[in-house]
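User: Quick sanity check before I run a bigger batch. Here is a single chain. Can you write out its predicted 3D structure?
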Amino acid sequence: MLAEALEHLVQGIVTHPEDVRIRDKELRHGRMLEVRVHPEDVGKVIGRQGRTASALRTVVQALAGREQIRVDFVDVDRKPGRGRH
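Assistant: Done. Predicted structure follows.
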């Protein structure tokens, strides 16, 4: 439910909603939702000084209740384990 809610929120913000992917990962200390968006949309989901990303994290935490949820934002061109070139 959390991944679907986050996907819906992010798709409403971005220019390329078809490129939004949410990956739900189980971690030792909770879950992580990894949000992948089109490179042109990274700035939109992060927002000025991270305000949009922070707001999205707040909504997800409110929906999660006591469960620990981490939300990470990456663009679709970025390879795991590599920085930007």
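The helical segments are 2-13, 42-46, 51-64.

User: Great, the batch can go ahead then.
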